[in-house]
Write a structure and sequence with these properties.
The chain is mostly beta strands and 481 residues long. 0% of the residues lie in helices and 65% in strands. It is globular.
Amino acid sequence: YWDYLCRTDIATGKTGDFFVTLFGSRDSVSVIFPEMRLGSDELSEQTDRMGWNTTFHMGILGWDWDIGDRWKNTFRYQLMNISADFGSPFGRNTQDIWVDHIREQLSFELNRHMKINLGADVQWSLADLTYAFPDAFNRVDPGEMKDWRFGDIAGYLNVEWKPVEQVQIIPGIRYDYYPELDYRGGVLPSFWEYRSFDNNRGKSGEPSARLTARYEFIKRHTAKIAVGTYNQTPEPMGEVITSEWGNPKLGATKAAHYVAGYEWQATDLISVDAQTYFNRQWAIPVHIGEEDFDISGEPQPLYKGNGLGRMYGFELLVRHQQGDRFFGWLAYTLSRSERYNRSEGEWELYGSDQTHHVQLLGSWRLPKNWEAGFRLRYVTGNPTTPVIDVIEVENYPGSYSFRPVYGKRNSSRVDPFVQLDIRVDKKLVFDKWILSFFWDLQNISYFFYKSPEFEIYNYDYTDKTVFSNFPMFAIGIKAEF
């Protein structure tokens, strides 16, 4: 992997301040499984390996302009390109996506108690996709989608109101329009699936309402709450709304988020932030099941937009701001993510649920402009569905295949993820510029614990290979002038 970043700032006096940022990265992984001999040689002659590459480049232009004593304008333009390819004996696909994003906000300070922000968010994406996957008879039928167009055209208004010095209240409204969708959107913000009236009478978009409030009830002690509705184009983006792979009539995925928290500024350098949250999601795209198949033989969509999800948990952050020598923080999240199984009529664990997530980071300034630090992460392993039995099936004379019998979905977990990283920085200070070097050793915990990334069974499901990421060494350089 490699990455880069370049930023320049330009102060122009009365016309405001400009900045330009360019950054990007590339990550490549190739995994070899010596005992794996599966898939189709039409996709790859090397049927014992898989690999993927992801590259992105982004440029951001920013302009901040103080128009007058009370008016301020903020403008951002972002252009991004993402290209990715995945290849294995089981399938190949490539993606090339261009994203344009404009954000414009005009702020007016009415008085020392109130500030009004009016803005627009416009995002436009153009995507090309090629794919090739074997069917049940191991035949490869390649395909492609060119010039997919996706967008989000949004406007918003919020007010920053401080009725007294200890209280801040920020109500806001927003509307997102999705030109690629074809459905009847909401006319009122959706905090749940309304049953008492028909809310789906608008265009292919959704209104949102949000409220944030903070109250410093004792000096250095602040209570906070946040309530809001959110929406997005259904995911996987593009795939789920095509006639070939999905359902062209799917609507936006919706959510309602609730947060209550407490902040304590223990000292000038040490702060504590604790909060609980609850998130409800609905209109999630889900694959149709056996119970949804239409035996009439008529074409039918492969996705339905009736999925339900919920997430709830607790977050804690203890932070030590940069002092003379030390900077660091401890973060802990206790969470649960679930999806509703309509066929079983019950909530079950989501495939990416992570019960415990702990991060500990520390960095020390040393003599002669040296700096050293570490990051330690612990994450509960993702849920997985266990294989409890194997059925041997005779396809042709002398030819056999093996089909797994799965247990309850997501009733098991892979082992926990643990990673320790170490970084050392050296700074050279000159009269008009600064040159910095860093050495970064990631995942040195590999030498005493191999964190599982994913698992792959062999051809007859009698054994499985666990893939663990290996240690990686990186060096970097930064110049400031």
